[in-house]
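During the second year of the project, the team shifted from modelling isolated chains to modelling whole assemblies. The rationale, set out in the original proposal, was that interfaces cannot be judged from single-chain predictions alone. As a representative example for this report, we include one of the complexes processed in the last quarter. Its constituent sequences, exactly as entered into the pipeline, are reproduced here:
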Amino acid sequence: MRGLLPAILGLFLLSFGAVTANDRVNDTALMQKRPAKLLSTYGLFKNGAKQTPNSGVHPYDLQQPLFTDYASKYRFIYMPLGMSAAYNATETFDFPVGTVLVKTFGYPADLGEPDKNIRLVETRLLIHQASGWNAWAYVWNADASDAVLKVAGKTLPVSWVDAAGDTRSIQYVVPNKNQCKGCHTYNKKITPIGPKARNLNKDFFYRGGVMNQLTYWSDNGLLKGAPVPAMAPSVPKFDDTHAPLDARARAYLDINCAHCHRLEGPASTSGLFLTYGEQNAVNWGYKKRPVAAGRGSGALRFDIVPGEADRSILIFRLISLDPGIMMPEVGRTMVHSEGVQLLRDWVNQLK
Amino acid sequence: MSISGPLIAETINIEPSDNMQETLQEALILAEPGSRILIPAGTYNFTGALSLDVPNITLQGAGMNSTVLSFKGQTSGSEGLLVTSDNVWIEGLAIEDTPGDGIKAKGVDVITFKNVRVEWTGGPKAENGAYGIYPVESKNVLIDGALVRGASDAGIYVGQSQQIIVRNSRAEYNVAGIEIENSYYADVHDNVATHNTGGILIFDLPNLPQQGGHSIRVFKNRSVNNDTPNFAPPGNIVGSVPRGTGIMVMSNRNVEVFENEMGENATVNMLITAYAEEFDDEGFNPLAQEIYVHDNTYGRGGWDPDGLAKKMIAPKTGVPLPDIVWDGAVGSVWDAFFGPSDDETIHIKEKEGTSFANLDFVYDMIVPWQAGIDRDISNYGGSIGVLKPVILPQDSSEKTGD
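Output from the structure prediction step:
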C-alpha cells in the first residue's frame, strides 16, 4: 500500500493536469518556437466554431477597423495571469511576453444578418515570445471543428450576399507569415497595429454589460497607466457623419495605410506618411509627387490634388484591383466603395 | 556577423510541384538562417508575391535562362520577390512578367544579385512593372551580371541606399536602364545600357527619408543607342527623360563620370541638370554640384532631341545638341553674375573637340539679360578630388584578406 499511494497521487495529478489543459490557455504551446499545427492546441477558445473565448481571453474591437474585403472580424486578447500591458498615448501598447492577439475572419452568408450562418475563414495569431512577436494564420475546416496552420498562406473562394442583396464572390487571400509582417512592422520588427489607445477608446458590449474598453482593460489588469477614457485620444468612426470629415478621413488613412506609410514602416521609402498625427502637409500627400510609384501614379502628378479627387493618386490606387497599382498591397481584392467615397469627399473639399 | 557565407550550410533542394507557390514560399519561411535554397531548372508559375525574411540565405537557380519564375498570372502582391532580411545572395534565376516590381529588397544590409535576369517578355510597354531589380533603403548592395529588359520605370533601380556596386550588367528596352536615386557611395561600372529611353541616370528627389545623393562614380560603361520612346506612365520622374539620353545627372553632389562610351543617343550623350519641378522641402538641394566628367568618348548624339530637351535646350544650342549639356543652374543671382563658386560648379576634362554648352539657367529665376550660353569648355577645368572605390563585405574579388 505504501508504494501505491504516490502512484495514485501521480495519476490523480496527471488527470487533473489534463483537465486543466482543456480549461485554460496552453502557455507552453504558445511559447514554442515552432507553431502548433492545429489552432485548438493553444486552448484559446472554449468553442472555436462559436468563437467563445476561454477564460482569460478577452474580446475587443476597434473604432475603425482595417478594410479586408468586408470580412467580419472577431478579436481577442490573452495575457498570462498577472501580466499587463503598459499604456501609450499614440503607439501600440507595450505588451508583455506571453501576450496573444487573436483575430478571426469570417463571412456571414448574408451581410443583412451579420450574426447568422457565419463561415469562419481564418484565425490569425500574433504571439509575443521572448524573441519578439510571431505571426501565424490558421485556416478553418469546412465544419469549423478546428483550424489548420498555413505557413505559406492560401487562396480560397468565399462568397456572400452583400447589403444590397447581391452575391459577391472573391478569391480570399490568407496571408503568409512574411505578408503578415508586410503590414505588422515597426522599425523592422513584427508589431501589432490595432491596439492603440485611439482605436480602443470606445464602448464594447461585454457579457456583463456595456463598458469602455480602456476602462475594462484597466479594471481587469490587462493595462496599466491608462488615463480615464475622456483623457485618452480617440478617433471617430469613418461613417459617423456627425464627426468632422477631416478627422474621419485621417482616421481611415491611419488604420488602413499608416502601418506601412510612416517613417518606421515598410513604405517609408515613399515619403508618404499617413499616421493620424502627421502634421506636415506634403508628408500626408498634399501636392506630394509620387516616388518609385511606377504604374501606380496613373499618369497623375500628385498624391492629393486639393479639390480634385479624380486627379489624386491616393484615390486612383484605392479604386484599382491591379496588383501593380492597388493600395493597400495586400488585404483586399475588392474596392471599399464606402471608404473611397469618404476620401473623395475629403479631397474634394481640401483647398 | 558572418557575411562571407553561411555558417551552417544546410541545403534545401526545392522539388518541383503542382503548387510551387506554396512549396517555395514555405521553404522561404521555414529555412533556418544559413541555408542555401536551390531551385532546379524549369519554368514555374506564381499567382502571388514571394517573400524572404530569413537572414543569411542563398537563393540559387540553375542559371538566368534555366530557372524561370513567371508571374504572368499574378493576381496579388506588388512585386515578384520581396527580400527584407540581411545578408541575402540571389543567383542564377529569372523573374518574368510581374505586374509590379521584379525583385525588391527593402531595408537589407548586404544584398547580392548575381547573374539574375528580370524581364517583361512582351517588350517595352506601359503595362509592364516599374522596377526590375529594386534594392531600396539598403546597405552593401551588389548587382553583378544582371540582365533587365522592359521595365516601365527603371531596369536596375537603387534608391535611398548606401555602399552600392552595379557592374557587368546589361539593361535594355527599359525607360531608365540603370538609375541610382537618393543614394550615397555607388560605383556603376562596366555595364551596357542600350535601347532604353535613358541609359544611366543619377537622380536626387525631395521629400524623402534619404536625400542629398553624393559620392557616385559612373565609369567604363557603354551607354549607346538609347532609342526607345519614353513609355513610363506620366507623373513619374523618369517620364520626363527624353528618348535618347546617354548619361544624366540630376541634382546630387560629388559625381564622377569617366571612361564611359556614349553614342547614338539622339537627344544628348551627357546631361547635367537641377531638379526642375516645384517642391516644398527646405532640406533639399535641387542643384547638381561638383560633378566631374572626364575621359569619356562621345559618338554621334543630339541630332533629334526629344521632349523637354527639344523644347528647352535645342532652341538655345541648336541641333545637334553638344556632347555635354549643363543647365548651369546655380543658387543665386550673385552666382549667376559672377559665375558659380568652386564647390557649386562642374568640371570637365575631355579630349579636344568635345562639344559643350552651359545653358546658364538661373534656378527658379528669369534673368533676361543673361540669355547667352557658354560653350567654352576650358572654363570648367579642375576636378573634385578622388572618390574612393566602393568596397563591399560580400564581394570576395575585392577582398584583401579574410
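The first strand of chain A starts at residue 45 and ends at 47. Chain A has two domains: 25-231, 245-349.
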